[in-house]
# Entry
Amino acid sequence: MAYIVPSHAETLEDQRLYTQARLVEVACLDCLAKVGVKKNSEHHTSVQWNAEALSECAEFAAMDNRPGGRAVYSVCSRLHVSIAAAVRDGELTIGAEDGY
# Structure
């Protein structure tokens, strides 16, 4: 649960731009989970998971079943490959626009 909830229009717009602007839907080439992705640079990738994608991700499910569960910042290697393929195929561009 968020401990700070934005209430000003400018703050809400900043939050929307940071978390949702320019997201491209990318499907995992393995389990077909669909996430929102944007690449601001070669080394910076934002991935927005939703409940449905989390439930479909086979790699995350395997991690969840390990002792101690899955670390919050775990990466799905299968999705990582799928994102690289989307960039290679021109479906996902690299580079921030207007700072986002």
Q: What stands out?
A: The chain has a mean pLDDT of 87. Strands lie at 24-27, 34-39, 45-48. The radius of gyration is 15 Å.
